[in-house]
Design brief:
With 250 residues, the chain is of the alpha/beta class. Helices cover 34% and strands 16% of the residues.
């Protein structure tokens, strides 16, 4: 396989979840390169098609799903798997913004897309309904890695920045889609919630600086603070020392 073919496979898989989200199933997660997995998010953006769909449900983020190429276990498909997963999702999807944008799932945003995603990306790889649900409901907490692996962006010539639309965290090669001149210009999230301020990241530092914890703090937890209450602290030893002195802990 050539490097170009590999890149095309990565992009094909990254588009599977997005296209199926809006009702256009075009592929299978089995095309993910070996040892790759990621959890995918979309941010609301009224100037981008998928972002506009997310905007119907949230002003902060929408979870798209979890994709892997690795067989999790030799568990066999059970007759009641889909019904069990559908029951788990139906009562909980809004708690972690796992919405469907398909017409048949509107106006509530559930549950055909979520069930199909479980079959394609979970059940087929040996995940039980509960195991796949746990990955989604914790935004990937059981995953070994949640590195930045993919960004889709659109160019905004008025502010000379790449506006982030889709963002993936997990394990795999880092890919940029739609970035104007690669990492030359900064990346920014669109305005979220009622705020007019935006998070801006240097283009050359986007991969090391846009960590999953930073995404949690600046995007997810603005709407769902419970995810930050249980997330790993990003406080450095120096910051912790200052905090202790300020609060007389030492």
């Amino acid at each position: 396989m050539t490097f170009l073919q590999f890149i095309l496979l990565v992009f094909a898989v990254a588009r599977v979840s997005i296209s199926s989200l809006t009702g256009n199933m075009t592929g299978s997660s089995s095309f993910v390169p070996s040892d790759t997995y990621f959890i995918t998010f979309v941010v609301p953006d009224r100037y981008e098609f998928v972002g506009e769909q997310c905007y119907r449900f949230s002003r902060y983020f929408c979870l798209v799903g979890f994709v892997t190429d690795s067989v999790h276990s030799n568990r066999q498909i059970q007759m009641g798997d889909v019904a069990e997963f559908r029951g788990l999702i139906a009562y909980n999807y809004h708690q972690f913004n796992y919405f469907s944008f398909r017409s048949e799932d509107l106006p509530y945003g559930c549950c055909n897309y979520q069930s199909n995603t479980f079959q394609a990306n979970g059940q087929s790889f040996g995940y039980s309904p509960r195991e796949y649900f746990n990955i989604l409901s914790t935004l990937g907490n059981p995953l070994e890695k949640r590195d930045l692996v993919f960004i889709t962006s659109r160019w905004d010539e008025q502010v000379c920045m790449n506006i982030i639309g889709q963002i993936d965290f997990g394990q795999g090669y880092f890919i940029l889609d739609g970035a104007y001149e690669g990492t030359r210009f900064p990346f920014a999230f669109p305005p979220l919630g009622d705020s007019t301020e935006v998070l801006v990241i240097s283009g050359q530092r986007v991969q090391p600086d846009l960590t999953f914890n930073r995404f949690l703090q600046n995007v997810v937890c603005k709407e769902k603070p419970n995810f930050c209450e249980t997330s790993t602290s990003t406080t450095t030893p120096e910051q912790e020392d200052v905090r202790k002195r300020l609060f007389h802990d030492i």
